[in-house]
Amino acid sequence: MERRSFLRASVLGGTAAAFTGSLWQGAALAAPAQNAPSPYGPLQPADANGIHLPAGFTSQVVARSRQTVPGTSYRWHSAPDGGACFADGTGWIYVSNSETISLLGGGASMIRFDAAGRVTGASRLLSGTNINCAGGKTPWNTWLSCEETDLGRVWETYPFGGRAVARPAMGRFTHEAAAADPVRRAIYLTEDKGDGCFYRFVPHTWGDLSSGTLQVMVAGTAASGSFTWATVPDPDGFPIATRNQVSGAKRFDGGEGCYYADDTVWFTTKGDNRVWQVNLASGTYELAYDDDLVSPGTAPLKGVDNVTGSTAGDLYVAEDGGSMQICMITPDDKVSVFLRIDGQGSSEITGPAFNPAGNRLYFSSQRGTSGDRLGTGGITYCVTGPFRT
User: Fold this and answer.
1) Domain covering 3-384, topology
2) 8 A C-beta contact, residue 65 and residue 78
3) What is the residue-wise DSSP string for 257-289?
4) How far apart are the C-alpha atoms of 124 and 133, rounded to whole Å?
5) Which positions ≥6 away from 366 have C-beta within 8 Å?
6) Are 248 and 221 in contact (CB under 8 A)?
7) Which residue positions does the secretion signal occupy (predicted)?
8) pTM metric for this prediction
9) Residue 23: band (very low, low, confident or very high) from pLDDT cuts 50, 70, 90
């Protein structure tokens, strides 16, 4: 079976976090991606929402910060950030973080959709937390909402019912994103610091994040090579930060989005505009994208941030700033622009996530046209069209 067919079957069957085998690994991004025309063709003129899309794709506004989600009585949160989709019967749920302080509504919310993509409900998942930036979906259908503060926590939230719970065993540091690996039964974690690290949390019991071991990647200073994991002695991160507890811990310049599929985890670093690929089966790491190594012409992807994958095996990387684009990196090491938003240069694109069928892409512009740093002008969108399968 081709990797694309396998990936599509896996997503349609449940969760992208449940991939096993070597199909992604066998066709992994073996070198930094290079410029190429988009497989969807050139971008068209901006639509009514100010979004440039390839032919055949359309956009719609799903929700606006501080306004009631259409069809519900729920007021959408400010500063929408990391997100994920969950299958819900014949429909689905889109979960989104709020990257603001607790007094202004930080935490996470959800919107429920029916099989036709119509909104059927919206509600709060998490309140009273601070700067909930990105996070990750688990194979048991919970959402890990990560606080991007010096002693930030991971909060496990329950889109299908249940009270959110802090998971301090996963470490207290400037959390960004998380990605679950059901093969090694580990959760990978990025750290948004200029000298941050890349971690994994190995729970004592898979599916129970209340206890376990926090480890950090140990490797050389090169952009590729082999690595090992070392246990962090004090996950509490005080008085010594977790990133400074293990000699030889590899440093990354501002860890951001994180995505796992079949023995490979990708994560982004905004300080150097890189996408890293960690080959878990072989214990090696390399660059999937580096804006300094792109040719011919100018690198299209700047301000790398949240990342997700499609049913075709393409990576979709959102920009924080840059040209307000979502770019795609294909399995054959090609990078191109998928969409661009006009008139929102003081914002960032956040929370890209595909619905279970892989034909709708949800994402947000955190500050929208207003550019308000509090995120009061945030806009959450959905793009529908002939995504590759």
Assistant:
1) Neuraminidase (2.120.10)
2) yes
3) EEEEETTEEEEEETTTTEEEEEETTTTEEEEEE
4) 16
5) 79, 80, 81, 99, 347, 348, 349, 350, 375, 378
6) no
7) 1-30
8) 0.92
9) very low
The per-residue DSSP string of 297-321 comes to S--S--SEEEEEE-TTS-EEEEESS
Taking the C-alpha atoms of residue 380 and residue 70, their distance in angstroms, rounded to an integer, is 12
| 340 vs 85: CA distance, rounded Å | 22
Cα–Cα distance for residue pair 268/253, rounded to 1 Å: 9
Q: Which two tokens stand for residue 124?
A: 């709060």
Q: Residue 25 pLDDT > 70, yes or no? A: no
Single-letter residue type at 284: T
With beta carbons less than 8 A apart as the criterion, state whether 362 and 95 touch. no
Q: Are 71 and 60 in contact (CB under 8 A)?
A: no
What is the tens place of the pLDDT at every residue in 142-200?
A: 999 999 999 999 999 999 999 999 999 999 999 999 999 999 999 999 999 999 999 99
Alpha helices in the chain (DSSP H): 3-13, 23-26
My answer on whether omega of the bond before 296 falls inside 30° of 0, hence cis, is yes
- What CA–CA distance (Å, rounded) separates 223 from 227? 12
For the residues of 129-188, what is the DSSP string, one character each?
A: -S-EEEEEE-TTS-EEEEEBSTT--EEEE-TTS---EE-GGG--SBEEEEEEETTTTEEE
| 93, 159 contact by CB (below 8 A) | yes
* CA triple 132-179-285, angle to 5 deg: 120
Distances in Å between the Cα of 141 and the Cα atoms of 8, 59, 103, 376 are: 19, 27, 28, 29
**Segment 4-33 mean pLDDT:** 41
Token duo for residue 239? 């008085």
Please give the structure tokens belonging to residue 198: 């890349």
Structure tokens, 246:
């293990």
> Which residues, other chains included, contact 205 with Cβ-Cβ below 8 Å and sequence gap of 6+?
211
- Say if residues 192 and 269 touch (Cβ distance below 8 Å): no
* Average pLDDT along the chain: 92
Residue 5 identity (one-letter amino acid): S
